[in-house]
Amino acid sequence: MTNWRKSTYSGTGDNCVEVGHGVGIRDSKAPATHLPVSAQAWSAFLKMASAEVAAPVEQ
Fold first, then answer.
1. How close are the terminal C-alpha atoms of the chain, in Å?
2. What residues contact 10, with CB distance under 8 A and at least 6 apart?
3. pTM for the whole structure
């Protein structure tokens, strides 16, 4: 068992993605399943997401 958490931007809603340290990510509407994500993959995702916020890609 892990402590799942969601972004504070989600407020009190239940339609969000949650992160479990050392476990992965899951959809709050389907908490029985999760997607395993390594620490390296999660770090790469956060780095890419942060860069996207800083300089959005034009489409």
1. 41
2. 16
3. 0.57
